[in-house]
Amino acid sequence: MSLTEAEQRRAAALGTAVAVPALTGAVLLTLGLGERLTSWARDWPGGAAGFTVTLALASAVSLLVLAATCLMYAWPERTPDRLRLPARARTVCAVLAGLVACFASVPLAMTLRRPGARELGCDPNELFCYLHTEEPGAMPVWIGVFLTVCLLGSLGLYFLLARPRAAARLR
Fold this sequence. Notes:
Layout: H1 5-33, H2 35-43, H3 47-74, H4 87-109, H5 127-133, H6 138-162, H7 166-170
C-alpha cells in the first residue's frame, strides 16, 4: 500500500507546520538559555561530556521514534501487530518525538563549527565556547554516541519495519 498524493501532501504539511516553529523556538530557547546551558553542563553528572551525551541520546532516540512512526504510517502492512497504533496516537507520537529531537539536538548543533575555522572571540559562559575551550573532549564523545545510536537504531528499524514480512510475501 502506498500513500496517495493527497495523503503525502497532508503529511508534509503537518510535518512542516510542526518543524518550522519548533526549530525556530529551539534556536531562540538555546540562545536565551546561554549561560544556563553552560552551568547545567558544568554541574551535570559526568560533566560536559555527560551533558552532551545525554542530549545526543535524547535526540537520537527521538529521531528513531519519529522515523518508526513515519514508517508505520507509510507501510502499515509491514508493521508488526504488537506495534500498530491508531492514526491519532501515531501523529501525537511523531509530533512529540520531533519536538524532543528538535529541542535536544539544536544546542548540540549550535556547538559545531567548520573544521579549520579560525577561533572566534566569545564568552566562555556560552556552551559553544565552553565546550571548545574547557571541554574539547566532549565533542567527539557526543558525536560518536549520536552516530552509533542512529546507526544501530536504523538497522533495528530496517529489520523491524522496512523489510517485507513473510506473511506479506506469501500473498
